[in-house]
Design brief:
Blueprint (H helix, E strand, L loop, with lengths): L2 H11 L4 E8 L5 E6 L5 H21 L8 E5 L2 E8 L3 E7 L5 H15 L1
Antiparallel strand pairs: 1-2, 1-5, 3-4, 4-5
């Protein structure tokens, strides 16, 4: 991986507590690019992120609120953050429970703007 995409993913993973970052195709949930710790399953994370995003978009449209701008899934072992990156992609970060999610989100939005 090279160029601005690689730089954005790497910068995101340098945030304390962020264990990985992925660029995901929204339509099919496939990994386009990743920078993950070895114990993370990129394919599973990508599929989960795309599925959740699709459902959130449907719910937002049904409620008259439009498409989501940001999603955060908090789980027992950490958090998954996602933002749109261009027309057809999602940028996803995986963080530990004690990560500074505000800083992770800020870097996630910056990196997504570089991809778009």
């Amino acid at each position: 991986m090279t160029g601005p995409l690689s730089a954005g993913l790497e910068r995101l993973t340098r945030e304390p507590g962020v264990r990985g970052a992925l660029l995901v195709d929204r339509e099919d949930g496939l990994v386009v690019a990743e920078a993950l710790m070895e114990d993370l399953d990129g394919a599973a994370l990508a599929a989960l992120a795309a599925s959740l995003w699709t459902r959130l978009a449907r719910a937002g449209q049904a409620a008259g609120r439009g498409d989501p701008a940001y999603a955060q899934l908090e789980a027992e072992l950490g958090t998954m953050l996602a933002v749109p990156a261009g027309e057809a992609m999602l940028l996803v970060a995986v963080a530990e429970p004690d990560a500074n999610l505000g800083m992770a989100r800020l870097e996630l939005v910056r990196a997504a703007a570089e991809v778009a």
